[in-house]
Amino acid sequence: MLSERRLEVLRAIVQDYVGTEEPVGSKALTERHRLGVSPATVRNDMAVLEEEGYIAQPHTSAGRIPTDKGYRLFVDRLAGVKPLSTPERRAIQNFLDGAVDLDDVVGRTVRLLAQLTRQVAVVQYPSLTRSTVRHVELLSLAPARLMLVLITDTGRVEQRLVDCQTPFGETSLADLRARLNSRVVGRRFTDVPQLVQDLPESFDPEDRGTVSTVLSTLLETLVEEAEERLMIGGTANLTRFGHDFPLTIRPVLEALEEQVVLLKLLGEANESGMAVRIGHENAYEGLNSTSVVSVGYGSGGETVAKLGVVGPTRMDYPGTMGAVRAVARYVGQILAES
User: Which one of 2, 37, 222, 242 has the fewest CB atoms closer than 10 angstroms to its CB?
Assistant: First the structure.
């Protein structure tokens, strides 16, 4: 266990390195921070921190920089989440309140996160498996062609064309629409198959084939793999941190193109709590020089998706964690009110 004084020295090293981008020496630490001890004592503390693997010496400098292990201890023990200022919170609310639909909410959230943190922002669309049905609309496009529109509680809208074997009249269509909504509105998507399985039997024999076709289309929509969608923004921010990535940022850019990788990273966040993955804690090799800060968002205590940022390990963790948490909270409020 490190002493409180050595923890304070580590905190000071992290803060100075994040702020100045320069390796930190004992003289600079004693000048910038009130550590209450001499430079010689700080040098001794830094030697212990280096021996324990919390800081390291770049080959070109006499100063020290934090390691992944040092950043991890900083996040776990030393870093509070920095609250956003009142103007920042108001700007977030005003920007997100202008959204007109779910795509707009996600797009605005990505841009906002990238601007606030100056990192790469990643936002997952609300998962259908965690959603409930708000409404199912059925529209007649031709005597034997329908459009099925599924609207979720998170504002997501899915549209599918349904080709019927025989013409389906307006009266039958209105009847199916009413019965279907009476069974599924307000229910979890995972419950829908059980709720509608006997619905065709309640219709006249000549309509049962069409009803079954509509239900098949609905159920396919609920389980479609394409539901795992996400949006990414702010990739250009990485160019500001070229010296933070050994050799090249190409592996990072390649990893960001892999949607499966990003979904896995976001999935490591707890249901509603925040997850911070630092450097080599990221299983994907291309992201070993980055940190990922992610959190779940949703409404009514229900997490429906994740959002977060990816940036270099030399990150303002308190500020980034505060921004990610605040944005997630506002997005959850918008979904609850939509």
Answer: 242
Residue 230: enclosing H or E segment and its boundaries?
strand 230-233
| Burial of 209 per CB tally in 10 Å (0-12, 13-18, 19+) | middle
Amino acid residing at 124: Q
231, 123 contact by CB (below 8 A): yes
- Main-chain phi, psi angles of 302, to 5 degrees: -105, 120
pTM of the model: 0.77
Q: What Cα–Cα distance (Å) separates residue 218 from each residue in 135, 136, 188, 201?
A: 12, 9, 14, 17
Contact 140, 323 (CB under 8 A): no
For residue 315, give the 3-state DSSP assignment. coil
Whether the CB-CB separation of 306 and 296 falls below 8 Å is answered with: yes
Order of all β-strands in the sheet with 230-233: 230-233, 120-124, 302-312, 290-299, 274-278
